[in-house]
């Protein structure tokens, strides 16, 4: 028995020693010695053109520097990450440098340089700077597709202007969306402390590779509460490549509406939950329609990127350049098929729609019927929405209106209305049921600024 206990003790000692040795959190110092020189301090003098372009923290910072009043300009203090040592390219957040009069970059060793703004993309909040300097160190980019909740990470930056500050934690969530922070969101969430000034800094893994650009915090009290967000390095790289090649990010349009596959939808469609994004709408004359996409198709991948949700689809298309191709795998009636669509310029798509049917451009319609105690048995077309500045909007057509005649001919559905619009020259007379009353209105083709 004593011998058996000795064996157990030795085994437990081996296991505990192995666990300690394999836990990278025993010390991050060796990794940080290699990564800290690649994270820089950024001081940008911002000219305030529009207060709405500043986030809340920047607005508060600007006011605090000017006795509570909003100044004409202020100093934005943030961070950046060197991603190309030879060319001197630095990634940071767009909100840090947009409308900047000057940008000063301070390196790990204290050297200062004036930075050139290569380009900035407000919608993803990524910007690219360049400095002319020797002996720079860059961070290698990790494959964020292999990132998992629980991975150990470190946030490096200049919170509150405190240079080269490091905090550590774990990846606490992936694919955070609908936060209202950026137009295109796919955030890495971390409990590593991120504070004002960390914006544009590095989120690195235990190997010292860049996995994200620290961007935002959930902070009711203006400080860290354990929830920070970083833009995945893969997304930042995609934006950087477009900024380098074109100087901007010119996003294309596919022309579909899509939604997540909920458990109820999965049961109804007889597919697995989170198996893709189901197409709910295909816009006429769009790349999606040309490629052959249909309502009910389930898009499972775009250019090799797995699609689990509608937001994944939005992001996959959003970072494709105009005139590039989207190779899509999808499920249709439980069968796997592949389609290719050529992404188009949203403005050209809008112009096409306008030319096809100018009088109804910007109007969303739905076939409608109701037995009304006032109007009787009504069959017509319900106006779901009307875009401002459209011809229909200027004619006073509004959401909730019911169109029951066009050019004094009965309208019982969308097909009747579109036929009347095409046959009209430069104007169309509509009879509208609006609430308990009814009116006539005329949509005129007077041209639009689109």
Strand ordering within the main sheet: 5-4-1-2-3-7-6
Please, what is the average pLDDT? 82
Distance between the termini: 87 Å
β content, as a range?
35-45%
Task: Output the structural class.
Answer: alpha+beta
What is the CA-atom radius of gyration, in angstroms? 28 Å
User: What is the CATH topology assignment of the largest domain?
Assistant: Thrombin, subunit H
Q: How many β-strand runs?
A: 25
Percentage of residues in helical conformation? 10-25%
Structure in words:
- By secondary structure, this protein is of the alpha+beta class.
- It folds into 3 domains: 33-246, Thrombin, subunit H, CATH 2.40.10; 256-347, PDZ domain (Pdz3 Domain), CATH 2.30.42.10; 358-444, Pdz3 Domain (Roll).
- It has 11 helices and 25 strands.
- The protein has helices at 2-22, 29-35, 56-64, 94-97, 233-246, 263-269, 287-291, 310-318, 346-356, 391-394, 414-423, and strands at residues 39-47, 73-84, 89-92, 100-106, 112-114, 116-121, 126-130, 152-157, 165-176, 187-190, 202-205, 210-217, 228-232, 256-260, 277-282, 298-302, 305-306, 325-332, 335-342, 363-372, 376-386, 402-406, 409-410, 427-434, 437-444.
- The strands form 4 sheets. A 7-stranded antiparallel sheet has the order 5-4-1-2-3-7-6.
- Mean pLDDT is 82; it is low at 1-25.
């Amino acid at each position: 028995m004593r011998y058996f206990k000795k064996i157990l003790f030795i085994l437990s000692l081996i296991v505990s020693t192995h666990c300690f040795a394999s836990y990278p959190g025993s010390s991050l110092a060796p990794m940080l010695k290699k990564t800290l020189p690649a994270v820089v301090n950024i001081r940008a003098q911002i000219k305030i053109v529009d207060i709405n372009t500043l986030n809340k923290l920047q607005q508060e910072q600007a006011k605090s520097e000017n006795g509570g009043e909003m100044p004409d300009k202020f100093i934005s203090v943030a961070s950046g990450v060197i991603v190309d040592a030879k060319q001197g390219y630095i990634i940071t957040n767009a909100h840090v440098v947009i409308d900047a009069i000057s940008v000063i970059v301070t390196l790990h060793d204290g050297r200062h340089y004036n930075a050139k703004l290569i380009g900035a993309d407000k919608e993803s909040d990524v910007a690219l700077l360049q400095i002319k300097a020797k002996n720079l160190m860059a961070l290698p980019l990790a494959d964020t597709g292999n990132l998992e909740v629980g991975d150990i990470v470190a946030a490096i930056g200049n919170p509150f202007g405190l240079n080269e500050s490091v905090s550590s934690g774990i990846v606490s969530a992936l694919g955070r969306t609908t936060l209202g922070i950026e137009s295109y969101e796919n955030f890495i969430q971390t409990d590593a402390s991120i504070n004002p000034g960390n914006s544009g800094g590095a989120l690195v893994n235990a190997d010292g590779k860049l996995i994200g650009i620290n961007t935002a915090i959930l902070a009711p009290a203006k400080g860290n509460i354990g929830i920070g967000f970083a833009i995945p390095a893969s997304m930042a790289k995609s934006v950087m490549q477009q900024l380098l090649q074109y100087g901007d990010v010119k996003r294309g349009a596919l022309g579909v509406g899509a939604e997540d596959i909920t458990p109820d939808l999965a049961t109804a469609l007889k597919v697995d939950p989170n198996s893709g994004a189901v197409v709910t709408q295909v816009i006429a004359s769009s790349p999606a329609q040309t490629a052959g996409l249909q309502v009910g198709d389930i898009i499972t991948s775009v250019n090799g990127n797995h699609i689990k949700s509608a937001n994944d689809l939005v992001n996959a298309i959003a970072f494709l350049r105009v005139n590039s191709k989207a190779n899509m795998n999808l499920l249709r009636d439980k069968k796997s098929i592949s389609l290719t669509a050529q992404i188009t310029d949203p403005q050209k798509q809008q112009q096409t729609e306008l030319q096809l049917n100018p009088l109804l451009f910007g109007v969303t319609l739905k076939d409608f019927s109701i037995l009304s105690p006032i109007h009787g048995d009504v069959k017509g077309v319900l106006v779901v929405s009307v875009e401002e500045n459209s011809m229909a909007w200027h004619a006073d057509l509004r959401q909730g209106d019911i169109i029951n005649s066009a050019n004094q001919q009965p309208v019982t559905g969308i097909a009747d209305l579109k036929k009347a619009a095409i046959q009209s020259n430069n104007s169309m007379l509509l009879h509208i049921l609006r609430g308990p009353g009814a009116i006539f209105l005329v949509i005129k083709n007077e041209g639009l600024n689109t």
